[in-house]
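Marked as duplicate of an earlier ticket. Keeping the data here for the record.
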Amino acid sequence: MQKEANNWFASWFDTPYYHILYKERNYREAQVFMDNLTHYLNLPEKAKVLDLACGKGRHAIYLSQLGFDVTGADLSENNIREAQKNTNQYLHFCVHDMREPFDEKFDAIFNLFTSFGYFENDDDNLKTLIAIKESLSEYGFAAIDFMNVNHVIANLVPEETKHVDGIDFHIKRYYIDDHIYKEIDFEDKGQQFHFTEKVKALTLQCFQELMNEAGIYLLDTFGDYKLKKFHKTESERLIMIFK
């Protein structure tokens, strides 16, 4: 039985199974979101954009196609190795811990698809926000695309099985101690695997408190990838623009 390491995200995101399970993610929706977000921020051509926790780089690649100078950063070496196959003059990837600021400054920093709130220590969430703030240029903006935890908890599917590429992923979800958990069990090539995703259930109010502490200005909130206004119970996403 393979168990996750201390930092579950460091091991789970580094396995090929993570990408198998989530392969059906909607690329078109992601592109519409990037179109809307960059248009809303009115980013100039060749603006320096950081995709923080970029995974295999699908958002970063598309952002570079839109004409921006993009850096994708992720903790997973396997993800970055895969993403680096797409490197060009205006698209770069690096292994980076989001709790640490960058030496260079960016015009926009995007943290997308609920890539926040994974840390065991809550102080690391504040540390990450401060690192984002310190990596922004004077006129730069940042965006965090998080789940709307009120909506997620109210609509939690306790158990389901997803069949992908010949593998049955048995998934359990529950909410306990201010965290949303997803237990994933499956078998492949005669070996049993178990991983747990654990994300802090951060509400808009939680983020506002963290941002106040970090000296960050929350400018706007949206509830979906078309940038409709955020609604506390009905919106699926919590998208925050700040500087």
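See parent ticket for discussion. The chain has a mean pLDDT of 93.
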